[in-house]
Amino acid sequence: MRFADPRLDRIRAKVCARERLSRDEGLTLFETGDLLGLGWLADHVKTRLHGDRVHFVINRYINPTNVCVLSCRFCDFARKPGRPGAFEHSIEDVLGMIKDGVHEVHIVGGHHPEWPFEYYERLIGAIHTARPEVQIKAFTAAEIDYFWRRWKIEPKETLQRLKAAGLHALPGGGAEIFSRRVAKALAYTGKADPDRWCEIHGVAHSLGIPTNATMLFGHIETLAERVDHLLRLRTQQDASGGFLTFIPLVYQVGDTKLVPRQTPPTDALRTIAAARLLLDNFPHVEAYWVMLGEQTASIALHFGADDVNGTLEDERIAHMAKAESPVGLAREQLLRMIHDAGKTAVERDALYNVVRVWN
Ligand code: SF4
C-alpha cells in the first residue's frame, strides 16, 4: 500500500509494531486526505483481530418510555409528560414485544420524572423470568446516574440490584461527546459528565457487567474533541477493561437541525477507521446500520468495523430523528449486507458468544 499522505507511513509502522497511537496521530487520522489509506490501516487491524468475520445479533430494541426531564438539543426522541407523542409502556407491554428467537434485548429510555427505580428492577426481573434464554442489555450510564439524582441510589447498588434481577450488560449511550463546551451548547450538562459516565462503566466492569461505549458525532463538535473522546475511552478501558464494543453514532438532523445536513458517509467511514486505530484495547468497533444506512455500513466493514449490530425490530430513537433506514432488518438482510462486503457473518449473542457462523 502506497499512501498519498506520508504521515500515514509513520502511523503504519507503529500500527504494524502494535504501538499505541498518540493524540497528534489521532488528529492526523481525522485530517488526512488519504481516506483509502486510512481505511487500509484500520482494515489491517480489524483483520488481525477478527479475520474476515463480521458479527451480528438477533435482537430487539425496546424503549419503555420517551418521557424525559431533560431537553438535550440533539434529541428528537424525548417528550414531556402528557405531550403528543409521549409514551409509557407497562412491564406487560414490554414482555409482549419480545418474540421467540431473540438473543438480546436492548433497553434504554428517557429520564422519567416519576417512575421509581423499582419499576426498572421489576422490568429486568420479569424479562429474565419470562425469557431466561434472552440476554438483557439495559440502561445507559446516564440513566444509572439519573437513578442517583432522582432516587439517591448509588450506581454500585443500582447495578448490583439490576444484575441480581437478570441484567447482563450495559449499552454505551449517554456519552454524547466528552466536551464541556459541547455539553453547554447542546444543553446536556444535566446528565452524567465524562468522569461520571466513565466512573459508572468502571463500577459495572468491577461487578462483572460488560458494557459498550458510544460517541455522537457529526454535529458541532471539533475533530480534536472526537480524538479526546476516544482517548478518554481508551484510558477507561486500560483502567477497568470491561468495554466490548465502540459504536460511533452519526447525528441525525431530524427536527433538531444542529447542522444543515447529515455528515457525509466519508466522514462516518473516517471516524470508524480512526476509532479502530486509536482504541487498541477495544475488542470490537461497530458499523451501526440504522444511523449509517445499509450501504455505508457495508462499506464500513472494509474500514475497521467488525460488527453491524442486529435486527432491532423497532428502533425509535434514530427514527424519531427521521433516520431513513428501515426500523428493523430481517436476518437475511443483515447476512446480505455482510456477504456483499465479502465477509463471513457470525451470529452472536450480547456477550459475543458465537451462535452460528453463516458462510
Ligand atoms: S438524549 Fe436522553 S436524556 Fe437527553 S432528552 Fe433525549 S431521552 Fe432525555
Write up what this structure looks like.
The chain has about 350 residues and is α/β, with parallel strands linked by helices. The chain has a single domain, classed as Alpha-Beta Barrel (TIM Barrel), CATH 3.20.20. The chain has 14 helices and ten strands. The chain has helices spanning about 5-15, 25-30, 35-50, 90-95, 115-130, 140-150, 155-165, 180-185, 195-205, 225-240, 265-280, 290, 295-300, 330-340; strands at about 55, 60, 105, 135-140, 210-215, 245-250, 285, 305-310, 345-350, 355-359. The strands form three sheets. It has a four-stranded mixed sheet, covered by helices on one side. Helix 5 links the parallel strand 3 (about 105) and strand 4 (about 135-140). Helix 2 (about 25-30) crosses helix 10, helix 6 crosses helix 9 and helix 9 (about 195-205) runs parallel beside helix 10. The longest helix has 18 residues, at about 225-240. The protein is globular, with a radius of gyration of 19 Å. About 50% of the residues are buried. The model has no long low-confidence stretch (mean pLDDT about 95). Iron/sulfur cluster (SF4) binds near residues 75, 111 and 191.
